[in-house]
């Protein structure tokens, strides 16, 4: 093979390599990026809750304010969930706030004293919000709580507000002995949550406090701790 033929063959090989390289870069670009994610079409929801304690001497535990769909936190005549039992006996709302089916949650900053109010803001991003629930314990009791569950807010527009009164419920998980060892509030400073259930084991309207001056001599409570319904006022406003 002469020198000219060798040069022609060499140039052909180089040209083929360059052509293949160009085709490879064109068909498989090295700087390609994955497609962007679809836009988030959910709505920002923002609700304001104002809670007012209407009792004379029953501090309310830190409130739980939650958003959900078909879920209800309690039903009259039904057994209390472990989360509701814990809150109703000790005032600890962390179990309720951790329920997986909830669409949004917020807890109150602290105890709401008699005659006082607190405002909390719930924010969440969802396709829709159907219902809200509010729950808190009357801490100078064995297992009394109050609130509203399944409040329909599906039709609320921005700027709308609704107000309602709440009554006291008995979680039915702890006997209403009113003994100092079993009431966690400032009137007694006793035990909070106890996993044992020694009462009727269903939610009912609370029958009220008896107290030592009402004939229950072993009670750590007195007439000042009694309450009449309603025990709390709530106002919910849709801000966004």
Structure description:
The protein is α+β, with helices and mostly antiparallel strands and 240 residues long. The protein has 2 domains: 1-32; 43-238, F-spondin domain (Immunoglobulin-like), CATH 2.60.40.2130. The protein contains 3 helices and 10 strands. The strands form 2 sheets. It has a 6-stranded antiparallel beta sheet. The protein has a 4-stranded antiparallel beta sheet with strand order 4-1-10-7, with no helix packed on it. It is elongated.
Short descriptors:
elongated, 27% strand, alpha+beta, Immunoglobulin-like, 4-stranded antiparallel sheet, 240 residues, 6-stranded antiparallel sheet
List the helices and strands and how they pair.
Layout: H1 3-27, E1 43-53, E2 64-68, H2 82-90, H3 94-97, E3 104-107, E4 117-126, E5 131-137, E6 144-152, E7 161-166, E8 168-170, E9 204-205, E10 232-238
Antiparallel strand pairs: 1-4, 1-10, 2-3, 2-5, 5-6, 6-8, 7-10, 8-9
Q: Overall mean pLDDT score? A: 89
CATH superfamily name of the largest domain?
F-spondin domain
Q: Order of helices and strands, N to C?
A: HEEHHEEEEEEEE
Which consecutive residue ranges, at least 5 long each, have pLDDT under 50?
A: 3-26
* Spatial sequence of strands, sheet with the most strands: 3-2-5-6-8-9
- Note the beta-strand portion: 25-35%
CATH architecture of the largest domain: Sandwich
Q: What Rg, in angstroms, do the CA atoms define? A: 32 Å
Give me the CATH fold name of the largest domain.
Answer: Immunoglobulin-like
